[in-house]
Amino acid sequence: MQRCVSVILFIAMAVGCQHARHRAHAVPTSQAVRDAEASGLTPPVNDPALAAVVVPPVGWKAEPLKETDKHKHQIWLSPTGNTAYGIIFFTMPWPVGQDLALWGFLQQMKRTEGEATLISKKEDDDLPGVRFIAQGGLYLVRTNLIIDGYYGWAIYAGTVRGKPVDESELQTAEQAREQTRVITP
Q: Which residues are 144's β-sheet partners?
């Protein structure tokens, strides 16, 4: 048992922490409000449950919040129901780097959707974090993954596999994803 704990601690230290420098202010700026409205998004709103400033697309329907003791997941569905803007806020037992968090995300996707294939991954200092595209059994998600200590956010624009992609809806979901800001608790 002690050896297992040592291995886990070694991995956690080797992977390191990614600190989110991309923090939001509790009150959105007037420029952020203008940017959101120009993109077809609602004005930015501080959502304490998600520890983020969210900007759902105008006219998209919020699904009920899904939550466990380790995560909260909010989804907004497009008018067609084939496109989503979503935020998953999660906690971890110890600080890990983005690669280990991404691995965990894919494992959870595989458990819930039956499959999870990483299509692409790109580090982005502007987040800071990693951008990735993953395909599950049901959805294709284009995700910004941000890790800060014990906390993580997966902010995504997703589409239903096997259904036509509405490029306008996808573009709106991607704009919402890009304008979402995390707030470290």
A: 131, 155
